């Protein structure tokens, strides 16, 4: 997905989809950034949000602060859980004054010709199918990590992005953080000499995947839409809210947190793929996990 972008072909809509959807730093450092200051409703980027949970809420809070400056609006929302949809709609109206259209299914949002680009902020298992559908629908996209659940899905997604020519950013946001950018420049400058070992750690205070689910009512959830292509099963509120726990919907902590570390190593070393991988560990503390 790290295709190099020429500022000659980076038109306003594509630039804003990169800047607004992904909070990307690289494009903002180019002369094309000046284009984002040009006002005009006809040129405004109309952004759709697919998945209105915790991650979307955080991005919306951050992005709303520069919506006018960058000339974009939240035009459409999609979520399978009605309370999420209603809460996000109310919050966007409060933050920006926008009143987005709402959709229960992502296919309906992608069919909306008024939507220029989308944010995919769903549970992991939905990332690749929605990203592919967005590209096929002619939408640029910001997709939360992990982009895919497995290598086959990832290859399919990359092939689709290249074939359709869409701009896509995956949510490894450290690449847009000045301190990490400076670190990459330091390592690549050779100032540290030959790097032979990189030791990375992540300490988390608690199981962020464990969420209350007692208030989830079956009549307020599009359970069939949530399962997507997975085998049918009875409604399960815990599977719906605590999806990080289950292999059907998530690749676990490796995808939730580890993706940031592995991406950092590849980026700093300017080496996109490892030659070999070894893993150790187990479900040692939170026994309710499948991972």
UniProtKB/TrEMBL annotation:
<dbReference type="InterPro" id="IPR036291">
    <property type="entry name" value="NAD(P)-bd_dom_sf"/>
</dbReference>
<dbReference type="InterPro" id="IPR000683">
    <property type="entry name" value="Gfo/Idh/MocA-like_OxRdtase_N"/>
</dbReference>
<protein>
    <recommendedName>
        <fullName>Gfo/Idh/MocA-like oxidoreductase N-terminal domain-containing protein</fullName>
    </recommendedName>
</protein>
<dbReference type="InterPro" id="IPR050463">
    <property type="entry name" value="Gfo/Idh/MocA_oxidrdct_glycsds"/>
</dbReference>
<dbReference type="InterPro" id="IPR006311">
    <property type="entry name" value="TAT_signal"/>
</dbReference>
<dbReference type="GO" id="GO:0000166">
    <property type="term" value="F:nucleotide binding"/>
</dbReference>
<feature type="domain" description="Gfo/Idh/MocA-like oxidoreductase N-terminal">
    <location>
        <begin position="46"/>
        <end position="171"/>
    </location>
</feature>
<dbReference type="Pfam" id="PF01408">
    <property type="entry name" value="GFO_IDH_MocA"/>
</dbReference>
């Amino acid at each position: 997905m790290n295709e190099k972008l020429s500022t000659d072909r980076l038109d306003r809509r594509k630039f804003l989809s990169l800047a607004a959807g992904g909070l990307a730093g690289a494009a903002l450092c180019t002369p094309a950034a000046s284009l984002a200051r040009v006002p005009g409703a006809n040129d405004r980027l109309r952004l759709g949000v697919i998945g209105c949970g915790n991650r979307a809420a955080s991005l919306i809070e951050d992005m709303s602060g520069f919506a006018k400056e960058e000339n974009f609006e939240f035009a459409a929302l999609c979520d399978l859980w009605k309370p999420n949809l209603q809460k996000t709609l109310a919050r966007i109206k409060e933050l920006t004054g926008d009143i987005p259209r709402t959709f229960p299914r992502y296919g309906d949002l992608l069919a909306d010709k008024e939507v220029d680009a989308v944010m995919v902020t769903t549970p992991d298992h939905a990332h690749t199918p929605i990203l592919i559908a967005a590209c096929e629908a002619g939408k640029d996209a910001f997709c939360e990590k992990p982009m895919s659940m497995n290598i086959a899905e990832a290859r399919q997604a990359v092939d689709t992005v290249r074939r359709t020519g869409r701009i896509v950013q995956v949510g490894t946001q450290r690449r847009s953080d000045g301190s990490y950018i400076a670190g990459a420049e330091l390592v690549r400058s050779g100032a540290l000499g030959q790097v032979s070992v990189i030791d990375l750690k992540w300490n988390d205070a608690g199981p962020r995947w464990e969420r209350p689910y007692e208030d989830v009512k079956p009549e307020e959830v599009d359970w069939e839409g949530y399962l997507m292509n997975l085998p049918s099963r009875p409604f399960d509120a815990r599977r719906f809210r605590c999806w990080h726990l289950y292999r059907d919907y998530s690749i676990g902590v490796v995808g939730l947190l580890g993706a940031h570390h592995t991406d950092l190593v590849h980026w700093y070393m300017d080496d996109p793929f490892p030659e070999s991988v070894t893993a150790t560990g187990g479900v040692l503390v939170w026994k309710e996990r499948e991972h």
